[in-house]
Amino acid sequence: EEEARIKAEEEEKARIEAEQKAIAAAEANRAAEAKAAAEAKAKAEEEERKAEEEKKAAEIAMLQKKAEEEAAAVKMAEAARIAEEEKKKEAEEQEAVKQEEIAEIAAETVKLEKARAEKAAAKIAMAGHFARMKKNENEKAAKAGAVAEMRVYDYTEVAAEEAPEMKEESFESRPPTPPPQTPPSGNSKQEAPPKAPEVETKVYEETLPNSDNIQLSKCVTTQRLKFEVEYALKRGTSDNVYSIEGTEKTALIDVPDKAFAENLFGENKHSSSDFLILQHISPKRLDSISALLENRSDVLPPIEIVVTNPGARVIYDALKPPDGVTPGSNERLIAAWKRPSELSGKPKLRARLRIIRGNEEKLDLGGGRTLTFMPCSTPRWPDVFCTRDSKSGIVFTSKFYSAHVANEQTDENNSHVEMYDSGGLDSFQEDWRYFYDCMLAPMATQVNSALFKLKALAYNSPYKQPRLAPCHGPVLLNSSPELIREYDEWTDKQLKQINDVSVAVIYASAYGNTSAMAQAIARGITKAGVGVEMVNCELTSADEIQELAKTVGGFCLGSPTLGGHVPTPVTDAMGQIVKSYDTDKPAGVFGSFGWSGEAVDIMETRLKNAGFNFAFDAIRCKFKPTEETLQLCEESGTDLAQLVLKKSKQAKKAESKRVQSETFSGVTETEAAVGRIVGSLCAVTAKSGDAQSAMLASWVSQASFNPPALTVAVAKDRAVESFMLPGGTFNLNILKLGNEKETMKALLKGFAPGEDRFGDMKVSYSENNECAIVTDALAYCECSVKSRMECGDHWVVLAEVTGGKLLDEEGKSAMHHRKTGKSY
Asked: Residue 768 and residue 762: Cα distance in Å, rounded?
């Protein structure tokens, strides 16, 4: 027990010692932790102190930087002020130099105008002399009841007698100015005018039904007679010549193009007519008049040529002896007009003029047959008039209601041609509409007045409906009311566009080449939905050109080069433009020339110096415009119209802040719904002659199984629209999903007029239609245009698929998704 007790005490003692050790260890730990906490607190306080010091240092640095920046800004502002003052001073010096240059140019211009005025004064003096002589002859002839003869005078000798002090300054007495021997292109080889292509022609003759012996001679060619824009359908053309017999006299209405002259007037055909009614005359038809006079018998009196005053001017100019300066002289007509007698060998007058000077002048052919004349001038055709035959009621409409189409239909003996509109309006509607769009739409204001006169003549007929006999295309015996109504609708549409926004095409033309360019530019303008004011400045007063400044949104100016100068009418028009037109109106210049071509450079320089900006690069054409040149003119007209339209819309938007009923996205519910219609993304490529074009299209749809056909919607202002006419060809390249972006990028960029559309694209060319094939496309279809339908601001083109190929069997078609139906 004692041992147990001792053992228990020892164990208790050991326990106490262990507890004391544990307490000591805990105390040591607490002391260590207190020490560590004190050290950590001291460290944190030290770091906080350092952070505060760094913050203060950063604030000081920031204040210093801000002060430096403010100092630098003040220094830069001072430098900018000094630079601005220097720039202003430099601009003032440049302006002073410019004003000096302008003053020098003005002085030179005054000098040139003075010289030109002196020449014109001499010419006017001679013209006055001849006018007095002519007046005396006319008065004597009128007293005798005859028509005065027109003679060809030797201007040089008469001018010397009339004004001897002006002999050295007289325009006519000067020797001809030889043309430069080196063209402006730098080519040392003298170029000759291009020869006209050989044209295969036929002449068909038939008496018009129920006309009381009016004979129609239809001169037909299935080839493209000229490169002018109105022949772009390539369906040939026909020139209609009408012969009307009375009991006493016979009248021939119009002459054909010189390509048909020998075929029609050979073997003395029609040469015995008493009157030649020239409803329209141009330098190209002078050879036809010559052929008629060359075949006229010696025993016949001079044929009386009925013309308006502008038409007489063309013939007067043609009968002037060639001097190398005066345009329009025709040596063949000079020789034929006074062809020597076969008996005496002396010159004998073969023709004389009867000039129409008012509305509804009449010519009696005998037997109750009277012809009534109605002047219907336009800027392109200032001499045009129409004729009504009292006996048949037929109205000979000249250029109105015409169409360039051969409409040749012959039997097995090749002895008959379809001369009338036997198929109704649908047979030739496309041809009539295209001729109107090209030739008459740009002159809608004047055409509207002419149509009013024409309808008054046409409906004064013994028949239930009017009958119209144009100078080109089918005679209208069945569909005249419908076409008259269509003309009214087309003209009203053009007049509305003119009232909205319009462009003035101001020009003069010596040989018809500049006029053809003006017509192509006007065609491009109307395609963009903009009205056109065609102004022939030879027939327009300065006040009228000045008045246009208030209405048009832009203009372009065209001129030939005559003797190295701009013709006086164009110079006068340019003076009115510089004086009256706002310089923010887009402009353009164009012109044709035979040798040097200074006129375009002169116009471009003067308008640039006046502050005008150009919508397209100046267009220069040597000799006659080619198909490629006319395409360039058309695209330039479209560019000009689109720029004018853009400026007009911006102005209207700035003036008008009407709130439209639209959704939050700016798109109406209807537009959003239409925008959900999807289509295959395609590239349309087309070629015509030397010209080619392309566009991106997604409004494409299959239209027929047999034959395979499709439709493509083409905006009217697209350059490719002119290629997609009935009879034309194109390729539809269906783009492949995944690699369509490069083609889209290449076709969606802006193109200058005449620029190659395929510059950034990989293409090959079809052996069948020569149109481009996009090599990265999924497939392509070779198409031939069959017809078109007008749908608002687009044409829907129906084309038959004549061939095609799948280029990638695994690929899928790229699709075009939109959110709105009011844009692409």
From this structure: 19
